Structures are given as C-alpha cells and as structure tokens.
From TrEMBL:
Record-annotated SIS domain positions: 159-305
UniProt cross-references to InterPro entries, sorted A to Z: ADH-like_C (IPR013149), ADH-like_N (IPR013154), ADH_Zn_CS (IPR002328), ER (IPR020843), GroES-like_sf (IPR011032), NAD(P)-bd_dom_sf (IPR036291), SIS_dom (IPR001347), Zn_alcohol_dh (IPR050129)
Cofactors named for this entry: Zn(2+)
GO terms (BP aspect): carbohydrate derivative metabolic process
Highest taxon above the source species: Bacteria
A Pfam cross-reference name: ADH_zinc_N
Entry GO MF terms: carbohydrate derivative binding; oxidoreductase activity; zinc ion binding
Protein name: Alcohol dehydrogenase
SMART domains: PKS_ER
Keywords in alphabetical order: Metal-binding, Oxidoreductase, Zinc
Family: Belongs to the zinc-containing alcohol dehydrogenase family.
Species of provenance: Kribbella sindirgiensis
Keyword Metal-binding in record: yes
Length: 338
C-alpha cells in the first residue's frame, strides 16, 4: 500500500510502498477513505512523542470501510462504514469498565503507538469497543474530522467543561480543535470569544458562532475583561503563554479546559488558581460509546462539522502540508483522501 513514511524527525516524509497491516485477533483493518491532518501529527513528526518508533506512518483521525475482520470480532463485517476514536482502548481494564476509555492505561493510538492512517489501510485494535458505525448520509471526510478534533472538543466543552447557555467562553486558538469548540459551545447557547493571530481563522470563528473575535496580542486579557471576563477558557492550541492568558481572563470561580498538548510543560500561577478558586480541567479525546449523542446532534443539524473542512489534499501533498504546520496553521480542517 502507499503511505506517508517518516524516516527522521523533522525531515520531510516521503510517500512510498509499504506492507499492508495484517488483521489480528480482536481487530479489524480499514480501507482509509479519509483522514485528517492535525497538529498532533506535527508534534509526532517533530519527535515530541516518546511512543513513536521510526520509521513511522502518522495519522489518527480516520474514517473508512472495513477491509478485514479478525477472529473474535462480532457484529462487524467487511464493507461496514466506520470511524474510531484516536484512543483505541483495551475494553477490559478498570477505567474501560467504568466507561472511561479515553484514559485507558493500555490504549493504543494509530499514528503514535503504531502505524497510522496516512496510508491506504490502517488497523484498529480492540474493535469491539472502538468502532463507531457511521450514519448512511455522513460522508467520510466529515467522519474523519470527528475522531480527534471535533469529538475531543465535544467532550471538552460539553462533558468536561460543562458549558451551559449564557456563559461566556473564550477559545484560544482557532485551528480545527478551536473552531470545533466555537461551534459546539455556540450550539449550547454560550457567548463565544474567539482568539487567534490568523484573521482568516477569526472570520471562520464568526461564521461558526463566535460573538466576539480578538486578534491575539498583549492586550488580549484586558479585552476579554472589558467584555465581562470568561466563565470558561479553552486552550485549543497548547502554549504556556496561552495558558497564562487563559487563567488571567477567567472570572472568579471560572473553569479552564486544557485540550492543546504542552510538550514543553507549563508554569501555573497557583496563587491565582487558589485565590480565585479557579478550576483547571484536562480533556483527552472521547470514547466510542459517547459518540451517539454527538452524531444525533449532527444528524438533526444542530452541529455541522462538515463546514469546518476547508481543504482536501492527496497523500502526495501530505508531506509538504505537514511541514507547513511549522510556520502556520491553515484556517479550518484539512482532510487527506488516500
């Protein structure tokens, strides 16, 4: 099969022929119909993830059709249209049995622990707890964006951040995760403040429900407080500077939700965290069993993740698009069609 192969961190990957994945007991192999290009893939390519072993195939946001079914997998057949969370949980540990597959200690992540979906085929382990059947009218490009950015934002905003109507939510970073958070929080009736350095991204944020947009600067916190301060802040980028601004922008007893990865760590103003009784919340993906609520909202038109897709590229265009994330994040979501 053709795949995007990383042979050296930070060096442009190449598209080449590699062996197809072999279906294992309890797993399936998917023919990849669409896969998202995410900043997490960039982090992996840059060597920020210790689980990656070179040579490596990135890609963790995916949708496709089942091409092979392993022994012990029931209820699924070749040709079924599916997606999967980027966290493939084991299904049998204490966390999984409690319904918390997103923090499974035995999890496997395509594109990190093993070869991912920047390829024509990809394996999905522990199929019984990780496959999500797609609605017949949902296209693969839309479904691919659900597995990481949109599903992650849905859980972060709705289930972890518990955003409710009337709250003021400041979203820092309007890439795929941030724009998803804007759309989801707006659908819940929140007043959205979107912050980014990219004017095009801020324009999209307004289209997806942001009431206020702020071009990130040294005055960002002051501008948020002029609007009344935030009940909830979301770091959808992953930056020490953003974290500090997000905490400073909160009203007393506000909630901060951290989605963006922080590979270099972060320094917290613990005094402010205590004195203002702020809450710091981490959110990491969403388990397969939680998808139906999100899919129902998409089906009835309350959420429109397909609107986030601004670019579709081929495998051959993927290495350059991955490298381009070093200097800028394009507005909206980029989807790859192998």
């Amino acid at each position: 099969m053709r795949a995007v192969v990383v042979s050296e961190y930070g060096v442009l990957p190449e598209v080449r022929e590699v062996p197809e994945p072999v279906v294992a007991d309890g797993s399936v192999v998917l023919k990849v119909e669409a896969t998202g290009l995410c900043r997490s893939d960039w982090h992996g390519w840059m060597g920020h993830d210790s689980d990656i072993v070179l040579p490596h195939v990135p890609g963790h946001e995916l949708a496709g059709t089942i091409a092979a079914v392993g022994a012990g997998v029931s209820g699924w057949a070749v040709g079924d249209r599916v997606t999967t969370p980027f966290i493939c949980a084991c299904g049998s540990c204490e966390q999984c049995l409690a319904g918390d597959q997103q923090v499974c200690p035995n999890q496997l992540q395509p594109g990190f622990n093993y070869w991912g979906s920047f390829a024509e085929y990809v394996a999905v382990p522990y199929a019984a707890v990780n496959l999500v059947r797609l609605p017949d009218d949902m296209n693969f490009a839309t479904a691919a964006g659900l597995g990481c950015r949109f599903a992650t934002s849905f859980r972060a905003v709705h289930q972890v951040g518990k955003v409710v109507a009337g709250e003021r939510v400041a979203v820092f970073g309007c890439g795929g995760v941030g724009l998803s958070a804007v759309m989801i929080a707006s659908s819940l009736g929140a007043e959205i403040i979107a912050i980014d350095t990219n004017s095009e991204a801020l324009t999209l944020a307004r289209e997806y429900g942001a009431v206020h947009t702020i071009h990130a600067s040294a005055d960002t916190v002051a501008q948020i407080h002029e609007l009344g301060g935030a009940h909830v802040t979301i770091d959808a980028l992953g930056s020490n500077d953003v974290v500090q601004q997000a905490l400073q922008a909160l009203r007393p007893r506000g909630r901060h939700v951290q989605i963006g990865l922080l590979p270099s760590g972060v320094n917290l103003d613990v005094g402010r965290l205590i004195g203002q009784e702020l809450t710091w919340l981490g959110s990491h993906g969403m388990p397969a069993h939680a998808y139906p609520e999100m899919l129902d909202l998409v089906a009835n038109g309350n959420l429109n993740p397909q609107q986030l897709i601004t670019r579709t590229i081929t495998l051959e265009e993927t290495p350059a698009a991955l490298a381009a994330l070093t200097t800028a994040t394009p507005a909206g979501v980029t989807v790859i069609t192998p």
